Structures are given as C-alpha cells and as structure tokens.
Amino acid sequence: MKNINLSTWWKNFLTGVLATAVGVGLTFEVNNRVERHKHKQAQRQAAMMVIYDIDDIIYNFIREKETEDAFFKAAMYLFTHQEELETIGMDSLWMAAEYLVKNPANNPVWADDSSEKVFSSSMDVIHDLGDITFYDNVQECYLKRRTLLRLMETSSTFARPISDSFVLEYRKHVSAADMDGNGMMNHRAMAGLLREIYRQPEVPLYLQKYFMRDREYQSFIDHFIRRNQENKYLMNITDEDMERYIAKHVNKVMPAKPKLIVGQWDMRENRQHRTYLFRKDRTLSLTVRTDHKIGTYVESENVNVYMLAPLTYTMDGEWALKDDSLQLDFHPESLQIVAFDLNLNDLPRAALEAGSESIETRKEQYRENVLAQLRRQTAWSMTQKVSLGQSGQIMFWENQYTMPWGQAFTDKSQLLKSR
User: Fold this and answer.
1) How far apart are CA 27 and CA 33, in angstroms?
2) How far apart are CA 392 and CA 28, in angstroms?
3) Residue-wise pLDDT tens digits, 132-141
4) Lower CB count within 10 Å: N or C terminus of the chain?
5) What is the rounded distance in angstroms from the CA atom of residue 68 to the CA atom of residue 88?
C-alpha cells in the first residue's frame, strides 16, 4: 500500500514539475514573441519617421524650387522690361528684389535638422533599424543636404549677387515722398532700386547661372527620391504604410465646420499678432498688433528717419464657409486704431524744435496718416482653403496666388484657438 502511495505521489510530483516547466517555457516564449514584435514595430516606426522626414525634405525643396522658379521669371522679365518698371505690379518688383538680394535671416524649411538629430543621437540606432544599408542611405541624404546648404552659402553660382547693405545705402537717398507710412519704399522708389540693382555687373551673370542652379537642384531632388524609394524597399514599407503613418502621426486634420470655426483664433507671423473672432451670426472682428514703422524725411538734417510705432487696430467684417473654402470680407471703413505708441524722440533735435505744432499734435497727424493708409489697402477680402486639426484647436489656411506671368504658388498659415 505504501509503495502504491509513493508511486502515485511521485507521478503527481513529476506531473507538477513538468507542468511548471511547460508553463515557464510557454511564458518565456510568449514574452520573447511579444518583445520581438515590439522591437519590430519600433524598427518600423523609426524607419517610417526617417523616410517621412526625407520625403518632407523632398516636398519642401520642390516647393521652394517652384517658388525660386517664379521669382527668377519675375527678375528676368523685369530685367528685359526695365523701361516698364513703373507700370508693373509691386508684387513683381518685390519678388525680383528678393531673388537678387541676400537675406541673412533666410533659413529654408527643408534645412530643418531636428529629425536628423533624433536619428543620430542614439548609439543603438544601427541595431534598432536592423539594416546597415538603410542607415547608410539616410546618413548619405543628410550629408548631401548639409553639403548643398554650404554650397548655397559660399558658391558664387548660388550666392545672391546684391548685399543688404547695398539696399540700405540706396534707401538713404530715397526722399520722404517715396516712402509710405510703414517706412517702406513706394512703387517709384522700388522701380529705381531695381534699375540700380540691374546696373551691377554681377546681376546678369547670376541670372545666366540660373540653369546651373536648376540642374543642381534637380539632381538633389532626383537623388533623394531614388534613395528613399530604396529605403522603403529595404525596410519593406509600402506607400500605404506611409499613408497610415502620416494620417496617425502627421496630418491629423479634419474638414472645417461652421460650429467648429466659431470662436477666437490667434495667428502670429512676421512680427504680427492677429486675432480673429468668428461669431455664430457670421460676423467677424479682426484685431492686429504689429511693430509698425514710420519713415519721414528731416529736411534740416537731409536724412530719412524711421520711427518705431507699435500699433493695434481693429476691423469688422463677415465670414462664410463653403465646402473647404473660407471667405473673409472686411469693411475698411470700420478700421480703427486703438493703440498707437509713437516715440518722436527718435527724430533729430532740430526736427523736434522745428514747426509750431506740439508733439501730441504731430503724433495725431502721424496716426491719421497711418489710419488712412491702412484703409486704402485692397487686400481686405480673401478666400483660403481651410481645415482643422483633430483636436479642433488648430486651424490651417492655404492660399494660392497667381502671378502676372501665370505662375502659381501656395502660402500656408496656422491659427490657434484661444477661446
């Protein structure tokens, strides 16, 4: 009887040990599979992040190239029609000047290296991605971008021919009659500036080298496209995979609806803060705070002086939403200046002492001139394509412009809901 009980106990013991071993083994295998799955998903996420970044570089570079093409056409057209500069639109004159004058503050969108820093910051990135060729391709793309940026800064083929100091020197000799209330040159002064620019021997050479730059840019684009197609193949990532990644992590947008637009939205760009208040009854109020500048000619000193005059103004209007188009119509006659902080101490002493008007009277005269100028602006009606972020707290605007020679380009803005 004891032998039978011992045998039964031994069998139960072995069965328990075996069951425990099997359980531990299964748990270990399941955990391994879960970890391998997580690692594989992390690999794909890291790869898609980098592939998207390179695709984004390509997109933004193509967009910038299209803008440069439009600016070149403007500069070339005006170069061959200098006798007509006073009759050509101000936008075209500005485009030509921007194409030819150096801008130290200009930083291309495609030069943003934040994703590159994330990619390069981990010592385990090669192991995490699991493919050395993919890693090399990505590093090559980022290196080529840095090389092109250096080339654009240092090469005579790419560097713009006119310095900003050239423009500043020209402005010193512009009369007060040729400056507007913002301290900006009017149409006649801009036409004169462009004629001076076109007289510089470097300018025709720079225009001639456009085709060299264009070939280099296209080579850059083609190289990035080939490499990123190879990247997708190496990591087994399809276009559908990328679309899902972008929808989930990047383009979280939804169509705009009137009830979602109602509210207060803020936009900050170009040293300007705009607040749009959209009401349910389709009326609209705009408040603009900006660092305004006023230019004036001081005859006694024979100099143009520019005074900082931060101002805030408001204006009323109506809004309408049709499909994905947002129409804004403002009433310039409703425009009012509610804050005007002009410091006349920037004027030379002789100018302050000249004339019989008080300081306050002069400030009021400047204020009235600025108000009249703002009301004369023609761009108070606008239509833009609109969409909202998934949270409903971000609004995206997209405007398309067509230049006199038929070239179209796109301007994008972003607004944040404040209440």
Assistant:
1) 10
2) 45
3) 888 888 889 9
4) N
5) 19
Enumerate residues 6+ apart whose C-beta is below 8 A from 231: 47, 50, 51, 54, 134, 137, 138, 237
Instruction: Report residue 107 as tokens.
Output: 């930083």
pLDDT mean over 57-80: 87
The CA angle 362-363-364, to the nearest 5 degrees, is: 90
Whole-model pTM? 0.56
Q: Which amino acid is at 90?
A: M
284-306 pLDDT, tens digit per residue, is: 999 988 877 766 666 665 656 66
For the stretch 159-170, pLDDT in tens is 889 988 898 888
Contact between 238 and 41 (Cβ < 8 Å): no
Domains of the chain in sequence order = 41-251 (no CATH), 254-417 (2.40.128)
